[in-house]
């Protein structure tokens, strides 16, 4: 993973209205656990690396859950899949995304609309892009944009805004060319560096041209049933959040470490029969829920606030952001990942 993704050395936050640098920050400073290491990792590469650590056939793709039933008195859950097949589960961990069927079964609050929308793209430079290994970010003027080198030949960019239409996309999600021109027109109307415009122009748009940004209300998580019996949730099914801190996948990996540790302690090396094992599993999931509840609420709240303030074009918010809060907002990018979830 390290060999395929550049380590970012710094963050440069720029005002979209003035073109001036609002804040520069070293991304290699020392944190609680040592020097920070920030990289823009391509999702497909991460998924492939994780899959390769598992025995062949462990993952069953295209297995969307439709409903969940209790299987008689043995406490197992019967999962009905979209293809008509069923699965029995001794332990059910819902990692089924923001529209999670498992989260709904647990009674978690439905994700809320943030009022913002995002699009993103990936630009390739076969001969090398020559950009500094820095995270370049633009804030204000009613949008939030950024560009991050992933490798010597690949650049990722994103753009978020608050649509004026009810469908949440301003009607520009009909084709890749329409979305690209919309982003370029917004960037050209502001003071954005030419290399960002070039990256957007040569980019491949993602399959999802634009998506409304949703999140689960942090306060609802503090009171919610994250686990119930032998069922729990993780990843976006637990803590859907706006992407403003780039911590969605990172927080899901934290979930995995904590969950594996809790379940491992409950299942491995313990004596007793099936009944005792069931009780240990329930206790392990309750322990996991207790550990991840506050952390999840913290990440969701911090990400929402950072995105709201950085994107705003309100005169008062813009003044406070640019003159007083630019340092705090930038440091939050390092403060939230500086967290020890423990070891397996």
General description of the model:
This protein has 344 residues and is an alpha+beta fold. It has helices at residues 43-51, 101-106, 176-188, 194-201, 218-223, 248-267, 274-311, 315-335; strands at 7-8, 10-15, 21-26, 30-31, 34-35, 38-39, 65-71, 76-81, 86-89, 92-94, 112-124, 134-140, 143-149, 154-161, 203-205, 211-215, 227-228, 231-233. It folds into 2 domains: 2-42 and 117-214, D-Amino Acid Oxidase, Chain A, domain 2; 89-111 and 216-308, FAD/NAD(P)-binding domain (3-Layer(bba) Sandwich). The chain is built from 8 helices and 18 strands. α6 packs antiparallel against α7 and α7 (274-311) runs antiparallel to α8 (315-335). The mean pLDDT is 89.
Write a brief structural summary.
InterPro entries: FAD-bd (IPR002938), FAD/NAD-bd_sf (IPR036188), MOase (IPR044560). With 344 residues, the protein is an alpha+beta fold.
Topology:
Blueprint: E1 7-8, E2 10-15, E3 21-26, E4 30-31, E5 34-35, E6 38-39, H1 43-51, E7 65-71, E8 76-81, E9 86-89, E10 92-94, H2 101-106, E11 112-124, E12 134-140, E13 143-149, E14 154-161, H3 176-188, H4 194-201, E15 203-205, E16 211-215, H5 218-223, E17 227-228, E18 231-233, H6 248-267, H7 274-311, H8 315-335
Parallel strand pairs: 2-12, 10-18
Antiparallel strand pairs: 1-6, 2-3, 4-5, 7-8, 8-9, 11-14, 11-15, 11-16, 12-13, 13-14, 17-18
Helix pairs in contact: 6-7, 7-8
Strand content is 25-35%
CATH architecture of the largest domain: 2-Layer Sandwich
Report the CATH topology name of the largest domain. Answer: D-Amino Acid Oxidase, Chain A, domain 2
Task: Quickly name the level 1 CATH class of the largest domain.
Answer: Alpha Beta
Family: Belongs to the 3-hydroxybenzoate 6-hydroxylase family.
InterPro entries: FAD-bd, FAD/NAD-bd_sf, MOase
Domain FAD-binding: 43-272
Protein name: FAD-binding domain-containing protein
